[in-house]
Specification:
It is a single chain. The longest helix is centred in the C-terminal third of the chain and has 28 residues. The chain folds into 2 domains: 391 residues, Alkaline Phosphatase, subunit A; 48 residues. Helix 4 runs antiparallel to helix 5 and helix 9 crosses helix 10. 28% of the residues lie in helices and 9% in strands. It is α/β, with parallel strands linked by helices and 485 residues long.
């Protein structure tokens, strides 16, 4: 298995080209995390029913306002999908009403102007999908690939808990060509860590990240002040403390490192990626996440993607809660989660309640896998964080699905998205954010979220990320303002 050795309380160095920083106000520590920010995108399949994905008030009603603290809301209600997010409410933000609007533009030939299986790459490229599902994204790289080139670590990690070929991949190179994902955690580890890799000597000179830290800190000061003026009570107190910590960082500079990488190239995990049945999905997911956390901590990587299953194989079918939903009585004992429950869910026929029990149970199981990823990141101390923050504290995690809320292959609206972990110097966490009138024809392009993620890792000069034909359109430009500090 992966080594669980912790980081010694000593100074040290790993990668020579890291930049950026993350803050998150924490109740357990006086100072917020201050390590360089990494990026991880996680995807699970099968779409979402937005009405059972959002948090709710204790009465069961939807959040009363478009911007609410998750601490006052709950994911625990009948058929709720995100029950596993309850322990992580202060470290996530739920974005309600995000749209993959670019798929509807059809500005070039050979595009598919809808959102179905062959547009899954749109989520990280911000580009219009090809008409050929086996095609490429026409010189549009995915965000993980772009950030890898900007942040300067040796390895771009692309992992998958099983999978179904490149047409459902997450990562695309500079030409828009799909990049194969590694399904074996042991092979992923070997891609990140050469066999002769040894931890840095704790006596190596400490890298000074002051320039990168101050760049982000100064960028956020004005935004923080404006936000503070709009808030009251405990929320205002948090922002005030947050702003003062940022100000102090500028005045005092960086603090000494608290640890160093202890992973060696021989610490290969014994998980080879063979899932076998539904009960082993979490084990393989955790093994991939643990490798990614180690690679981040040792400076071997700054950007990664993790795909947790696809439509096939249909492990969702065998989940006990799905089996208990009553779906077998409708479809027979050999029913399949995707072809039956997912395809028929939006028909709104007389069997909707049975379909809902099974569908939401399967998606609730998937949410547990994302929670496992957060757990693995939280176990690893960030050696570049002088406050002793975890790798979760200093990683911006973007969890999404290939589909939004609507009929199968027409799911470009109300796309599920959760931001977790670090990046709280520029991104607001612990919030429910309703981005638009959910029942209206208004659209909020997800390209704005991709721009926000660029800002979160320190690339605040980026004002647009996505399809080249849309870069001059004002509605696609700039960060997602409700998410920004």
């Amino acid at each position: 298995m992966i080594s669980r050795r912790r980081f010694a309380l000593m100074g040290g160095a790993a990668a020579a080209a890291m930049m950026g920083g993350a803050f998150r106000q924490r109740t357990a520590k006086a100072a917020p995390p201050q390590g360089p920010v990494r990026f991880l995108a996680v995807r699970t399949p099968h779409g979402v029913d937005r009405d059972f994905w959002i948090p709710r008030q204790s009465s069961g009603a939807e959040p009363a306002t478009p911007d609410e603290a998750l601490s006052g809301l709950s994911f625990e209600y009948e058929n709720s999908i995100l029950n596993a997010m309850m322990p992580w409410r202060d470290q996530i933000t739920v974005l309600d009403g995000l749209d993959t609007q670019c798929t509807k533009e059809a500005t070039r030939a050979n595009l598919y102007n809808n959102h179905g299986h062959n547009e899954q790459g749109t989520l990280l490229t911000g580009a219009q999908g090809p008409a050929n599902r086996e095609g490429n994204f026409d010189n549009h790289p995915s965000l993980d690939f772009y950030l890898h080139g900007q942040l300067g670590a040796p390895v771009l990690l692309t992992a998958s808990v099983e999978g179904a070929g490149t047409w459902k991949c997450m990562s695309f190179d500079s030409a828009g060509i799909p990049r194969n994902a590694e399904t074996s955690p042991s092979a992923l580890f070997q891609a990140a860590f050469p066999a002769d890799f040894v931890p840095p000597d704790p006596g190596d000179p400490v890298i000074d990240y002051a320039a990168g830290e101050n760049r982000i800190t100064l960028h956020g000061q004005d935004a923080l002040t404006k936000l503070e003026a709009r808030l009251k009570g405990v929320e205002k107190d948090k922002i005030t403390a947050h702003r003062e910590a940022m100000k102090k960082l500028i005045e005092t500079g960086t603090n000494p490192m608290v640890g160093y990488c202890t992973t060696s190239g021989t610490d290969v995990p014994d998980v080879n990626g063979t899932v076998g049945d539904y009960s082993n999905v979490e084990n393989v997911t955790r093994a991939h996440a643990a490798v990614i956390a180690q690679a981040f901590a040792c400076g071997r990587s700054m950007s990664a993607t993790l795909r947790i299953l696809d439509d096939y194989p249909n492990y969702y079918t065998d989940v006990p809660e799905v089996q208990a939903s009553g779906a077998a009585a409708l479809y027979g004992s050999k029913f399949r989660f995707h072809e039956n429950l997912v395809h028929d869910y939006w028909a709104n026929g007389p069997n909707l309640e049975t379909l809902r029990r099974g569908y939401c149970a399967g998606q609730r199981w998937a949410a547990g896998h994302f929670a496992a990823v957060l757990d693995e990141l939280s176990k690893v101390t960030d050696p570049f964080d002088p406050t002793g923050g975890s790798m979760l504290d200093n990683t911006v995690v973007f969890w999404h699905n290939e589909f939004g809320h609507d009929g199968h292959d027409n799911q470009h609206t109300r796309h599920p998205a959760i931001i977790a972990g670090g990046g709280n110097r520029t991104l607001r966490l612990g919030r429910y954010l309703r981005l638009r009138n959910i029942d209206s024809q208004e659209r909020v392009p997800h390209n704005k979220l991709l721009t926000s993620l660029c800002h979160a890792v320190g690339l605040t000069n980026i004002n647009y990320f996505g399809d080249r034909d849309l870069e001059d359109r004002p509605e696609y430009q700039g960060p997602l303002e409700p998410l920004m500090v």
